[in-house]
Amino acid sequence: MKARSATAAAIATGGVSLAAFLGTAEVVAVATGPASQPEVALGRVVIARTPEWLKNFAISNFGENDKLVLNISVYAALIVLAGLAGALAGRTRTWAALGALTALGTVTAVAAATGPSASAWQSLPSVAGAIAGAAVFVSASARGGRAGRAGVGADSGPGGSPTLPRRQFLKKAGSLFALSAGAYAVGRGALARAYNAAASRAAVRLPRAVRSTPRVAGTGFEVEGLSPYITPNKDFYRVDTALVVPQLSTDGYILALHGMVERPAIFTFDDLLHMPLVEAPITMVCVSDPVGGPYVGNARWLGVPLAHLLGLVGPRPGADQLFMTSADGMTIGADLRAAMDGRPALLAVGMNGEPLPFEHGFPVRAVIPGFYGYASACKWLVDLEVTTYEAKKAYWVQRGYAQKGAVRLESRIDTPAPFAQLRAGPVTVAGSAWHPTVGIRKVQVSADGGPWHEAALADVESVDTWRLWRWEWEATPGSHSLQVRAVGNDGQVQTAAGAPVFPAGATGRQSLVVSVT
Ligand SMILES: Nc1nc2c(c(=O)[nH]1)N[C@H]1C(S)=C(S)[C@@H](COP(=O)(O)O)O[C@H]1N2
Ligand SMILES: [Mo]
User: For the chain, what is the mean pLDDT?
Assistant: First the structure.
């Protein structure tokens, strides 16, 4: 009985020390910035080291909640480790707990100080947290003098010494925990207020485009369950490694453009707004989008043509890669020739008529039709280097993904949903198809492996966007499979051969089963 409650107290002591660690660090991070929070630094390391299969598992099973799951896992792991360290220390020696705190503090301090906004100051929250955690551990497991006789673990406290009596211990541990939790909440609130560029974004007035792809009628169909031609910003998929969405302010924003160029230059946000802006609809696709998946969206982007910007600095012969770096340390290498070949490759400042949302890269991101996001669409962009593929490898390329990342010809069924229960009679089958920069000439649907039927196609504003389609099906009772394939403007027929997401994007045809009564 006694031994059991002694262990419980030791575990609780570990937990309270962890709370003190995190609470103190959070308050200190108000001075050093959100990226220096130890749990954020830790999460970043986990993301950077996550093996490919696990990353794909997370994206396909948790989707856009992948970061929520990661955060929960990091906290859960910390709590388990704190409990273990506490129990270990309670049974043997205080140094075990102090050692665990030092180890945790060191790992998070190094992770923070070597993060994207790397500076030694970034380790301060972790160091302060570890000290506070150690102080709390020592204090909560301090000797209670003679009263210790009746106490929790009277004869098995840390270091084998008597500890506080149960009531006194609970009170002390409880108030230390409350204090730590309070500090955490206050620090978190202050961080959210201090590192927030909402006012900066609200103040942006987007200029008119000098050239805008004309809007056309008839780009959509009134079919329930079918995506709209333009994806509203709030529904646009989000894929990135940022645990804290970067909050860059437009004042002080500087974009450097350098490397193999004649005249390196830097540009402020205002400089960019004063350049001739172009507006174009472009469909963006994530390489992690499985066949029939959700990581694709179409928006009207407003931005500076990369060709214009590159023309100002003059790339040198031999360069073939445009290497982009974001404020949060992501690196994305794009095909330099594609950025200048006349397609609307943009440094975007606007998305569907508004400044970029924070989640989508405010204040500046790249969008280059025809390439997956990891090889073209750097968000929170701060640096552009003209270089070679030989000289520099971008983040996902280092992890085995294809160097260029050209988007594959694909099509998707939006409705009916897989395993839908339908009534016999006319059923509208509808979805989208894309091959950015090429465009879609034809979409065909087959029921039960039968002949291919031509779907009706909606209009498109450019070859860089997806194309919506519909087909009227006379559904008869029974279980049926539906399959779709697209044909590009170049005559290419969407292949039936399946390829996984890694390393160059999924191929194959979506097929689903419905039951009709
Ligand atoms: N800074 C930064 N930019 C990034 C990423 C990232 O993780 N960090 N992810 C890329 C990937 S993989 C994709 S598919 C697109 C997604 O852009 P979205 O979130 O606006 O849809 O952003 C790209 N740009
Ligand atoms: Mo992606």
Answer: 92
